[in-house]
Inverse folding.
């Protein structure tokens, strides 16, 4: 547990549960007015040496303890030499120690200017960043913000390039080491064990079913990327291993990192049908892959018990959700119960895929801005209030449906049709309501039993 | 009459696709994986009996099997699906039969569907083996293709007929107006209206 604990310990915000100073009224719908003021947190930012890639997930500290416990992740192999050039498939990255100057941009919007200021500090203040990102990141900065908030990228600008280079090198070394390194022949990996073959088979079965409506994710390069990321994560986290739906969780990362690239290099937004081979340089794609791996790892570290056998964390979340709705929307709760609908039947997916299947990818990225800004509790705690707020949003509609089959239809897929048209405003309101619910209940657990 | 059916089988054998095709006549080449379970229903006519098929489509991955009993516990029928191009998936069918027989006994009617028959050229599962196995466990076997809409009506017909017959036997004499179909197969007719069940739907029994 220590690896996980270490990570949680670093990330968790001891003040967030009892933060009565959160006076900003998130009910105000203009997203950028929503300020989440939190007390300064020790341990996040005050020590640069700790910002060495994923906190608590870094390469050697956890090595001796994690292997003895059941639920933690195995660290990546220690890389004594941070030279990525020792990895054949990894292209030599620039080794410059000086921080790169920010890419040239056109006139910045006020929001972009705000982020630019925070991100260009010599030491990024994570609290300021979290407060800003809670209300949504500009697309061009999202990738960088997520890398920082998920503990992958160091806050110190001078060291950022070096650390990322090292972590990316580690990823590729691990891919070589796990037997998937050479080439793109998806079935021919003679070096892996029987169990690993079963795992790989499960992943390969799922990959073509990722985000069916977005061609980009079916591009062979992206399929290969997803395969390696998921396979490596699964063998490094044997207590969870691969669980259907984890493929969905990679999509917002890939989307955001690709988007970051197209905006900065080509000054155009990403499209769902982008031809990755033509438009994205191989090196960039390799960076996106390793970044996806590390950020996915950072995210999943806080909710590992969502994916262990019997998925206890997830079941608890679904139970909490049912209790919140029982308290806040008795009519809805009663309606569902009287029609025989159980929360586990529809909310399981919401918690397993963190709402990725309920929203368009661009909307989910915006929603995740808020979740990620909530620190390690974003997906383990805040998420459940988001689900409650989402259900509340459609409460009347749901109560108007009286047929079990139709109810199911709506809760399982029909909702996505409704959220297709969502923009910033709707997400901001959703997050605000989730925030209110969290403030009401998070310190009053007795009301939820 | 409400009949509960559960779809079981390994991941990506086509359970969800079978259901979408059968109930909505839709097919998607890339169907998202089912997590835990999903639900769809359809009104049908079995002989002279109006029935509502409530179908629970379950997740294929082993990880979600712990919750399987929630769905098959009180089911009247199970459709066990495998992919004819994947012998591993047929092994899973054997496991499911064993589990069902062990946990719910003979009360559950089982039909086995060999899906993706449109990919006959890639067949991995031998027909003789399957037929022999189905017979040995008292299950019917059908070949289906959700993609090409083959065999699905027959498959669900068979299951529904079995379930209706069993329900009738169970409530023998207790339910008025349910004639026992005699001789020959029943045929399913989809009833559009949701009310009553008074519609004659004539000639459905052959």
């Amino acid at each position: 547990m220590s690896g996980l604990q270490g990570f949680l310990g670093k990330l968790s915000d001891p003040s967030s549960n009892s933060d009565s100073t959160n006076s900003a009224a998130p009910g105000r719908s203009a997203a950028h007015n929503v300020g989440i003021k939190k007390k300064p947190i020790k341990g996040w930012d005050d020590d640069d040496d700790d910002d060495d890639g994923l906190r608590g997930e870094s390469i050697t500290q956890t090595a001796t303890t994690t292997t003895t416990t059941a639920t933690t992740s195995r660290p990546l192999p220690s890389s004594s030499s941070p030279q990525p050039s020792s990895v054949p498939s990894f292209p030599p990255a620039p080794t410059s120690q000086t921080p790169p100057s920010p890419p040239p941009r056109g006139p910045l919007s006020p929001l972009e200017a705000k982020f630019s200021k925070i991100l260009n500090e010599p030491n990024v203040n994570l609290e300021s960043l979290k407060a800003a990102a809670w209300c949504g990141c500009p697309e061009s900065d999202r990738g960088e913000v997520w890398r920082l908030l998920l503990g992958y990228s160091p806050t110190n600008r001078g060291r950022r390039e070096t650390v990322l280079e090292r972590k990316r090198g580690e990823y590729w070394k691990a891919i070589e080491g796990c037997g998937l390194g050479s080439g793109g022949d998806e079935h021919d990996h003679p070096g892996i064990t029987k169990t690993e073959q079963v795992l790989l088979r499960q992943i390969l079965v799922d990959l073509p079913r990722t985000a069916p409506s977005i061609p980009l994710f079916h591009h062979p390069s992206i399929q290969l990327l997803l395969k390696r990321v998921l396979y490596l994560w699964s063998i490094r986290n044997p207590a969870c291993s691969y669980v259907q739906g984890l493929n969905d969780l990679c999509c917002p990362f890939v989307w955001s990192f690709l988007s970051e690239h197209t905006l900065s290099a080509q000054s155009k937004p990403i499209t769902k049908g982008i031809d990755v081979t033509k438009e994205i340089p191989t090196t960039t794609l390799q960076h996106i892959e390793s970044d996806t791996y590390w950020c996915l790892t950072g995210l999943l570290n806080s909710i590992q018990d969502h994916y262990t056998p019997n998925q206890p964390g997830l079941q608890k979340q679904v139970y909490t959700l049912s209790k919140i709705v029982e308290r806040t929307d008795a009519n809805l709760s009663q309606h569902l119960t009287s029609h025989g609908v159980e929360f586990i039947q529809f909310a399981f997916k919401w918690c397993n895929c963190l709402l990725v299947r309920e929203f368009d990818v661009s909307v989910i990225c915006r929603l995740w801005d808020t979740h990620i800004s909530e620190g390690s509790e974003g997906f383990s705690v805040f998420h459940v209030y988001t689900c409650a707020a989402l259900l509340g949003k459609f409460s009347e509609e749901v109560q108007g449906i009286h047929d079990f089959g139709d109810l199911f239809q709506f809760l399982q897929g029909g909702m996505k049709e409704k959220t297709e048209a969502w923009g910033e405003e709707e997400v901001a309101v959703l997050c605000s309501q989730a925030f209110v619910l969290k403030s009401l209940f998070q310190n009053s657990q007795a009301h939820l039993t | 009459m409400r009949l509960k059916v559960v779809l079981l089988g390994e991941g990506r054998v086509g359970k969800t696709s079978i259901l979408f095709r059968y109930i909505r006549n839709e097919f998607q080449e890339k169907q998202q994986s089912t997590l835990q379970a999903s639900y769809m229903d359809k009104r049908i006519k079995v002989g002279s009996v109006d029935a509502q098929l409530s179908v629970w489509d379950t997740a294929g991955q082993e990880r979600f099997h712990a919750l399987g009993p929630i769905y098959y516990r009180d089911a009247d029928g199970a459709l066990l699906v495998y992919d004819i191009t994947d012998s591993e998936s047929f092994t899973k069918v054997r496991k499911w039969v064993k589990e069902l027989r062990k946990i719910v006994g003979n009360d559950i009617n089982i039909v086995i569907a060999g899906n993706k028959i449109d990919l006959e050229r890639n067949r991995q599962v031998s027909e003789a083996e399957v037929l022999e196995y189905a017979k040995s466990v008292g299950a019917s076997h059908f070949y289906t293709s959700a993609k090409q809409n083959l065999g699905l009506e027959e498959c669900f017909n068979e299951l529904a007929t079995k379930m209706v017959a069993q329900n009738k036997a169970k409530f023998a004499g207790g339910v008025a107006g349910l004639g026992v179909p005699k001789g020959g197969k029943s045929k399913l007719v989809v009833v559009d209206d949701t009310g009553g069940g008074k519609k004659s739907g004539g000639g459905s029994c052959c």
